[in-house]
Amino acid sequence: MAATEQLESLSLIGRGLTSCAHVPELRLISLTTVCLHGNNITDLEGIKHLTRLQHLNLSSNAVTSLEGVQGECVAASRTPNPACEVPAISCWSP
Questions:
Q1: What are phi and psi of 38, to 5 degrees?
Q2: Where does the pLDDT of residue 2 fall: very low under 50, low under 70, confident under 90, or very high at 90 and above?
Q3: Could you tell me if 29 and 10 are in contact, meaning their C-beta atoms sit under 8 angstroms apart?
Q4: Enclosing domain of residue 19
Q5: Model's pTM, two decimal places?
Q6: How many domains does the chain contain in total?
Q7: Hey, CA dihedral for 84, 82, 44, 22, is it positive or negative?
């Protein structure tokens, strides 16, 4: 099995993404942590299949709903992110 097939964490901070649908790394079902901070993503198409997802950071994006996200994400927040001092939508497992 290739090392990328076992990848659990992925950070795509500030890559100018507007969609997740065509990002090859997001096809890895082993991902448990994904940080997409600082892009211009508007929907979650392309990550809805990540059933092992535990941590999802969407701060500084244009996403308005976490509908369809699978895995153990249990809470959504639109409160400021103290680390980035910007509005955030984040999903974290307990």
A1: 75, 30
A2: low
A3: no
A4: 1-94
A5: 0.70
A6: 1
A7: positive
What are the strands of the beta sheet with 9-11, ordered from one edge?
9-11, 33-35, 55-57, 90-92, 75-77
Alpha carbon distances (Å) from 57 to 2, 3, 26, 52? 26, 23, 14, 15
Question: Are the CB atoms for 91 and 63 separated by under 8 Å?
Answer: no
DSSP symbol at 29: T
**85, 51, 11, 61: CA torsion to nearest 10:** -40
What DSSP character marks residue 15?
S
The strand pair at 75-77 and 90-92 is best described as: antiparallel
User: And the tokens for 69?
Assistant: 């996200």
Confidence label for 64 from pLDDT (cuts 50, 70 and 90): confident
d(CA 90, CA 87): 10
State phi, psi for 46 to the nearest 5 degrees.
110, -10
The CB density around residue 61, as the number of other CB atoms within 10 Å, is 22
